[in-house]
Amino acid sequence: MSNVMQAARIHQYGDSNVVQIESIPVPQPKHDEVLVRVRAAGLNPVDWAIRQGYLQAVTSLPLTLGWDLAGEIVEVGSGISDLKVGDEVYAMIQLRGGAFAEYVILKRNEVAKKPATFNFVQAASVPAGALTAWQVLFETANVQAGQKVLIHAAAGGVGAFAVQLAKERQAFVIGTASAANEQYVRELCADQFIDYQTTRFEDVVKDVDVVLDTVGNDTLERSYGVVKKGGIVVSIAGRPTQGAGGPYGIRVLRIEVEPSGEQLTKIAALIDAGKLKTLVSQVFPFADVRQAIEASHAGHGRGKIVVEI
Ligand SMILES: NC(=O)c1ccc[n+]([C@@H]2O[C@H](COP(=O)([O-])OP(=O)(O)OC[C@H]3O[C@@H](n4cnc5c(N)ncnc54)[C@H](OP(=O)(O)O)[C@@H]3O)[C@@H](O)[C@H]2O)c1
Hints:
binds NADP nicotinamide-adenine-dinucleotide phosphate; 25% helix; Rossmann fold
């Protein structure tokens, strides 16, 4: 194994031109860390948001972009007994990033064995989307069988997993997307579809228990009125004002996804049981990582974009 690797890095915030593929030393795993040979890395809106400098308060330069990945463990740091060289894993990395590279260091608590039934490209498309949906629906909203759940952007990277996880909990699921994505959202087993471009969801939906807001702005604010008393709106995209739910008798929260190998292990079990699917809409070679980030930024029709490394 060479001691240098290729990595997609930024030394300043800005547009596509700030992303450079560079040779840098392969990092060494410390206590409670593993070194992973990255085979595929998934794209998320956070890639371009960080590149652009929107998260300067919590990131520092230079940094290697990329937060979702699948690959093989090539070195195990001290203190880890349940993972070994050769294990095929997948992960979402904490905000330090580093997935758009040939090798990456992962903390023990970020890593899970990859789903056996998924290849590296499919596995790399899962972590952030599925973890966000899991943490919103199961940890924050505690969705129960029979509850009505409204998922905005049901064809998106988070929304598609959210539809499937809510159905897994036997909720009644309503998904919004444009008409082009209706069939896809219905294939995910949503019970009701709303074309947000032709129908205001608040005209056709009421008495919802849980809303997952992936859009923010007025989609977030218009959601309050469709929730029944005691219900909850969880936003991952908007910034609800303090006390916004008070007049409606509902809770309104914003959450930030956290890495979790433990939850990814449960998600892998659902995948291997055939209960959770992924849709990889585009695969780019590593040399075209800039274009992959641009494609993600442009907003795609459905599913996930992945870079093969
Ligand atoms: N807080 C957190 O921890 C966290 C975690 C993950 C993601 N996020 C944020 O959550 C948002 C969604 O992430 P993502 O990965 O799901 O993004 P994504 O995959 O890029 O979402 C694209 C989808 O959004 C849909 N869409 C756009 N405007 C819509 C609207 N007004 N109503 C309904 N659907 C609409 C599009 O559907 P059509 O093509 O049919 O229009 C498309 O399928 C992003 O802003 C991201 O930054 C936050």
